[in-house]
Structures are given as structure tokens and as C-alpha cells.
Amino acid sequence: MYIYVKVYFNCFLLVILIVHNIQQAHKKYKSFLNKSIDHYDEIALVVSKDMTTESFVRTFADIDLDDGNQESVPIDHDNEEIDESLPTACALRVFPKPTISSLFPSVSVSVSNSNSAVKKVFEWIRKQSKKMKILFAVMAMLFSLVALKLTAKYHNHFFVASESIHAAGILVLIYKLTTKKTCSGLSLKSQELTAIYLAVRVVCSFNLECDIHTLLDFATFLFTAWVIFMIRFKLKSTYIKELDNFPIYYMVVPCAILAMLINPRTAHIYFSHVLWAFCVYLEAVSVMPQLRMMQNAKMIEPFTAHYVFALGMARFLACAHWIIQVYETGGRYLFLVGYGYLWFPMAILAEIVQTFILVDFCYYYIKSFMQGQLIIRMPV
């Protein structure tokens, strides 16, 4: 009992730490946000392109001005002559880096001095070939796995930590939606896929185990359902549907077929086996629409980036649990009697696939964070 209390307390501290880091980041860049609305536009402002006139208009801005007032600009471009909102697509305009120093000398100097060594390291990595970058990523993951194995005594609790980090990531989204009043940059399809696999997993968990994992999944499902409600109804005008264009059925249908073919063999009914396998497979690809949306936008605002990075860390911990279990059992864990000879390999493969899907984003996230950048710039 003491062990479980200790693990849950550590997860709670992790959530507090994430929230604290977000608050510190906001304070660090407060001087950017307190400038006039025009200066904010010049630094990094999401804008939208009117498909009819080919002109660019502001997408949103929610800025505290020096005189105490707040300036807000809606995402849609309203055409007063025809009394309707024209369709928009997202783009980003970033002020040239050399000019930032003249506009914000205090922030630019502090960021430059503190991260000069880090910039050199990332610049060196950036110049390496693609094969070398992959090698560095694999080495970093192996080093992390070894560190986790040596420091963590109870590896089964990696799943608890993984689910807690996922819940913390959703809380970051809730903070964004309630304070910024915009869902720009968020993929509704990814949230709907997340809600689907969480709902299925909660139902299966109630029937199969009903433990702390069930509680965490249920809480995360409620948070996700609230995010979906906000995007669909309360903040619908700030949702950029044109960029969220990854078809859901491309993931749901193959996952359902695969679940019927390869699933765990237990004493429960066959339908429960299929549902459990379905939620495992769907979870592995649920982030794809969000990544596609970020690629379409080319840049990611901070809160969405924090959320996706939390997903990456959660998946890495879950994947680490499987890999360490396989290592400690000498490979026997892959083919446990009674569970089907293909189920465990497929479950581990699903975790690895999801981890590698997020590796590229996590690299750019860490790079931007270490360099003190507000906006994460994705490659074309």
C-alpha cells in the first residue's frame, strides 16, 4: 500500500511541476506579450488568409496592452458587405530574428547568453546527415531506457506515470481553452479518436480489472470530452477545419480489422478481447491528425506543443515498460502462454510505432524550448 501511495504522490508532484513550468515560461516572455498589438504581430502572430481576396488578416490576438486594456481580434474575417464569415486558412508570420534584438534587447540578450552552448550543440546536430540524426535519437532512447531500469524499482508503475502525464497534457489544453478562449492549432479529430479509445478502454477496464488505471483513464476521458465540447460549440469560430484534414476512417477501420484478427486470449468473452486490442491499436495512431494539422500550419503555438510533448513522454514510458519486461524475462514475455502468440508482439509494436511517430516532434520541441523560442517551427 505504501508503494502505491508513493507512486501516486510522485505523479501528483509531476503534474504540479508541469503547471509550474508553464507559469514560469509565461513570466519569462511577459515582456513580449505586454508590447503593443502591432509589435506582437511582428514577433509571432497566427494570421489567416482570405481565400476570396487572397489577403491576409489576423486570426486571433488576446493581448494585455500597456494602458491596462485588452485587445482581441477574432479568427474569422467578417465581410460586412455580404454579412458572412469567409473561410480561412492558417499561416504564420514571424519577425526576422536580427530585428528582435532591437525591439526586445533585454529578453534577447538573456536568452542568447543562457543558451549559446545549447544552440551550438543543436546546430551541430542539425548539420548531420539523416542517418546520424536517427542514430543520435536511438542512442538517447537507449540511454533513457537504461536510466529508467536502474532507477525505477517497480516497472509496472510506468503505466501509472504514463497515464498521469497524459492527463496533465489534457489539463494544459483546458488551461489554454479557458484562458486564451481559442482552440486554434488543436485537432478535433485527434481529440475524438482519443475519446473513442479511452471510452473503450474504460469499459474494458471496468470488466477486467477496475483499478487505478481505470480511474486515471476515466478522468482523462472526461477531460477530453470537455475539450471536444469546447472545440465543437463554445470555440467553434477559432477551429481551423481546413487544416484538420486527416480522414478518421483511415485509422478506425484498419484498427478494428486488426483487432478482430490479433487480440489477447483470456477467460473473458471474445468481444472483450477485440475491444481491448482495438483501443491499443487506435491509441497508437490517434495523434496522427494532430501531427498532420501541425505540419499544415508549419508552426505550433506553445500550449498545443506542451500537450503533444506530454503525449510523447507518456508513450515513451509505456513503451519502456514493455521493453524492460521483455529484457528481464529474456524474451519469454513476448509469448506468454494463454494470451495468443501474436498479441504481445503486436502490443509492443503499437507502443513503438506511436513513440517513433512522436520522436520527430519531440526533437523540435526540445530544440525550441532550449533556445527559448515561443513558437515551434516545423520543417516543410
From TrEMBL:
GO terms for cellular component: endoplasmic reticulum membrane. It is found in: Endoplasmic reticulum membrane. One of its GO terms (molecular function) is ER retention sequence binding. The keyword Zinc does not apply. Its main location: endoplasmic reticulum. It holds the Pfam family ER_lumen_recept. GO terms for biological process: protein retention in ER lumen; protein transport; vesicle-mediated transport. Keywords: Endoplasmic reticulum, ER-Golgi transport, Membrane, Protein transport, Receptor, Transmembrane, Transmembrane helix, Transport. This is ER lumen protein retaining receptor.
